[in-house]
Please model this.
Amino acid sequence: MQMKSRYRLATDATLATGAIVTLSGNPAHYLTQVLRLKPESKLRLFNREGGEWEGAIQAIRKREVDVVIETQTRAPAQTVGLTVCFAPIKGGRLETIIEKATELGASILQPVITSRTIVDKVNLDRAETIAKEAAEQCERIDWPEIREPVKLLSLLGSWSANMPLIYGDESGGSAPISEKLAAPAPTQWAILAGPEGGFTPEEFAALRHVKSAAGVGLGPRILRADTAVITLCALTLSAWGDWQERPRFTATE
Model:
């Protein structure tokens, strides 16, 4: 059995047999200057719409690499129905949220501006780059949709009654998350983690007015904002997601 090439990159280009994809910028630099690949070297390209395809380098120019697409190795993925709502936080910890939520399987990343949110802007281009790089490393063949930041009250005001929203409640007023996860698994759900400093009393009141929202306790310790996101993702995915499936990794040449 022919083994897959070990190198894989996310791309927005259309993928089909015989298509030529031109990679430039960081991807081209990575292939030529870091990996030192040469013409005819094999690699895999993937995206949400086309799935994953194997191709070969056809030409290398100063800042561009042409890849000719050969065969499809995996069909487009069926996404896990997890939306991750989170308050943006400073510096590298925001990048950690994007990276780890992608690795864990999130389909949508929704930044949320709360009363105590310090960071009110998200560089969406940079966020998408981080998500793509995380997908490349974890054998995903898609990456999350990253949405524009929205204020918490606006988000809650239009929240669907059919979409469970599990939010971290550091006040101690909610049951442990294990009790909530005993419920039948939904096909789609969302998690919400608050900012540094947590939700205000007014925000907790707004959350309690959303019929499909449920606060959960995450143990006796107060978690950092990024840790809370990862914890909520991991626990809900282990109960409701696709974690019963085997790894999709295959041997490389």
Observations:
- The mean pLDDT is 92.
- The chain has two domains: 8-74, 82-240.
- The first helix runs from residue 25 to 34.
